[in-house]
Design brief:
The chain has 436 residues and is of the alpha+beta class. Helix content is 44%, strand content 15%. It starts with a strand and ends in a 9-residue tail after the last helix. 44% of the residues are buried. It binds flavin-adenine dinucleotide.
Length: 436
């Protein structure tokens, strides 16, 4: 990684080479998008992250505006609805670049991409999808509760239909971006499951529309003080009789309507009808695609964080001298860098492969769980190693490696813990006996 001038004996400082797009993934359009995202991340996102993250600051409106101008809120929204009309591959590729600078900037993208648009009314769906692609419909997702984390079937927030409104009462925890959002997608229990039904029966997703920067009547909350993942606040929310119009039910079967006539992966296929059973099946498929995409997106963010730690380490090892040498001369540390780079490359190859399968429409929930597991555990190891390579300076807020380390630590916990990914993978490999 370093080159030396044998006449002067001086070594020119080199930076780690950012990832290339090689065959079979390379296209000129993808390369252009990758370079654009990289330049934007390093020149515009990184300085903001370096300034604001240490103060637990929020992503500023100006940065959201730039993300919108670049079209990143609608990477996967079909072009006819104002999006870039690209796939999960491009979505993950851009997200890796952004996470290399600040994970939160990659995470906020996931709160658009057609999220919160799958209403039954086609006109509203079309309108919301356009707003989503423009970054004018950025949401929050309220699934988790104090007593329902990995086990979402345990959700107890109640929705009761009164006339033409749902009345929602309960407690949600960990809702990222709740106050700043244009909407909150809330998982509620409409009824208890009947005997013999799965525990998840009776759950529904409601769309709570709201103004940015405030909570509607009946909703209150406080931000949770996190170790990292700054850039947006994560909320503990209390719903006390919050009123939501009866028609604001989100259902992936709505998004599946008209599929085949209009392409694209997220949200608003508007037009034809798929009725009854087939609509339900199409909805299930959409819901699975959504979860799988979220897992691959998390893997890409983890790769971005690990890469940030590696790139910072490569520079630091050349700058820092001990025993009369740049510490980059010590083979133990050189080998550590080699191992970090190899692990990152492996996770990147894997997430690109799974993203490609998703773009082809190949069912791959096992692979999506595998890549989420592998890439996030890798990011924890690599950022931890990077901190070690930085010595005492790594354990300060003067360097960015501590941010990468703090943010990477979250990736094995949210979007389904590592243990839950292992459960998904093993459940597709090993039947359980009746005793289990
Ligand atoms: C910073 C942050 C942001 C978040 N953002 C959001 C958000 O925006 N919206 C949202 O809805 N949620 C969000 N979450 C919630 C997140 O998805 C949950 O924290 C996660 O799913 C784990 O749930 P839990 O914290 O309740 O842990 P628990 O489910 O209580 O798990 C505790 C431990 O038990 C293990 N475990 C649980 N069940 C099993 C099992 N069956 N087999 C083996 N091991 C098991 C877990 O892996 C874990 O190690 C966020 C969380 C954090 C920390």
């Amino acid at each position: 990684m370093t080159s030396s001038d044998s006449a002067t004996g001086e070594t020119e400082l080199q930076e780690a080479r950012p990832p290339a797009l090689l065959p079979p993934w390379h296209t000129p359009e993808r390369e252009e998008l990758q370079l654009q995202a990289r330049r934007f991340a390093m020149e515009e996102v990184l300085p903001v992250a370096n300034e604001l993250d240490p103060q637990k600051g929020l992503i500023p409106a100006s940065l959201l505006q730039r993300l919108a101008e670049l079209g990143y809120f609608g990477i996967t929204v079909p072009a006819e609805h104002g999006g870039l009309g690209l796939g999960v591959f491009e979505y993950c590729m851009v997200s890796e670049e952004l996470a290399r600078a600040w994970m939160s900037s990659a995470s906020i993208l996931a709160r658009a991409q057609g999220l919160g648009t799958t209403l039954a009314d086609a006109d509203r769906r079309r309108d919301l999808l356009r707003r989503s692609a423009r970054g004018e419909w950025i949401g929050a997702i309220a699934l988790s509760e104090p007593d329902a984390g990995s086990d979402l079937a345990g959700v107890s927030t109640r929705a009761v239909l009164e006339g033409d409104e749902w009345v929602v009462t309960g407690h949600k925890r960990w809702c990222g971006n709740a106050e700043a959002a244009d909407f909150i997608q809330v998982l509620v229990r409409e009824r208890d499951p009947e005997e013999g039904e799965p525990r998840s029966r009776g759950l529904r997703t409601l769309l709570l529309e709201k103004e940015r920067g405030e909570f509607p009547a009946g909703l209150s909350g406080h931000p949770i003080d996190k170790v990292g993942y700054h850039g947006f606040l994560t909320w503990d929310l209390t719903f006390d009789g919050v009123r939501i119009p009866a028609e604001n039910v989100l259902d992936d079967a709505n998004a599946a309507q008209g599929e085949g006539e209009i392409g694209g992966r997220v949200g608003g296929e508007i037009g034809g009808r798929v009725g009854g059973e087939s609509a339900a099946r199409a909805g299930m498929r959409k819901a699975k695609e959504f979860l799988d995409t979220a897992r691959v997106h998390t893997a890409a963010r983890a790769v971005g964080l690990a890469r940030a730690a590696l790139e910072d380490s490569v520079v630091y090892l050349q700058e820092r001298e001990q025993f009369g040498h740049p510490i980059a001369d010590f083979q133990a540390l050189r080998f550590a860098v080699a191992e970090m780079a190899a692990q990152i490359e492996q996770s990147r190859a894997f997430y690109r492969q799974v993203a490609h399968l998703l773009d082809l429409g190949v069912p791959c929930d096992r692979e999506a769980a595998m890549v989420k597991l592998e890439a996030t555990e890798m990011a924890v190891r690599v950022t931890n190693q990077a901190m070690q390579l930085h010595g005492g300076n790594g354990y300060t807020t003067e360097r960015q490696v501590e941010r990468h380390w703090r943010d990477a630590r979250l990736t094995t916990i949210f979007e389904g813990t590592s243990e839950i990914q292992k459960r998904i993978i093993s459940d597709r490999m090993l039947p359980r006996s009746p005793l289990a």
